[in-house]
Every structure is written in C-alpha cells, then in structure tokens.
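Take the subject:
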Amino acid sequence: MDATQASFNFLGFTIQMSRGAKTGKPYPNVRPADKSLKKIKARLTELTGRKLTPIPLRDIVGNVNRSLRGWANYFHYRNSSLAMSKVRYHAEDRLRTHLMKRHQVKDRGTGFRRFPSAHLYGRYGLYKVPTKAGWNSAHAVA
C-alpha cells in the first residue's frame, strides 16, 4: 500500500497525505480514527446512562472527566480540532441529558436553559476538552 495514495489507520489515528489549502504543498494529515471517536462516544454514553441517576453526580462527572482527559491527552495532536469538538459536544450533551433525567426535565429546550454549557463546566466541573492544536503555545489550555 502506498501511503501517499490512500489513508491508513495506526494506533488509533488515521494518517493520509493531504495538500495545504494555501500553499498546495503535501503534508501528513494525522487525526483520530473514526473507530476511536466511536469508542469514546460509546464510553461517555455508558458513563452517563439513565440507570446511573442514583449515583452521586460528583462520581459520574469524575468518571467522565477521567475518560475525557485520557482520550484527549492521547489524541490531542496535529489535525484533531474537529474530532476534539465532536467529543466535547457529545460530552456536554450526555451530561446535560443525564442531568435532565436526574431532575426530571422532559423538554430539551428547558434542559438547555437550565443546564447551559457554562454551568456544565463551572458548576458541575466537566473537563473541557481542548479543541485547538496542542503544539501551538498561543492556544495552550491551562
């Protein structure tokens, strides 16, 4: 197989040669593989399931944060902004859905108003997955 012609998966990443939008020069495009995205999303869904509402919220958020941190630390490399955004939004959505079930909020619009993203991070302590390139010090996440 010729890596310049077709993409391939290696250690959870998809690697392919792409051309830069401005210069047209070829560069290796390295991003999390689709299978890796599906696995973390399934894990987040499992950790925020409906049957877990009796468990203290602090424990649920702690488990979600451990999974998110580990995944983000491994995959936060090169062209991963889109994948990181997908994981961040899925984590927000899953925690919000869990809180809606826990507080018996049936309407999704009410759920968004009652549990906005700022509260998920500030009040509940959800780990904010970085979406900017990790190698760029201007976008470093504290």
The beta strands are 8-10, 13-19, 26-32. Confidence is low (pLDDT under 50) at residues 137-142. The first strand starts at residue 8 and ends at 10.
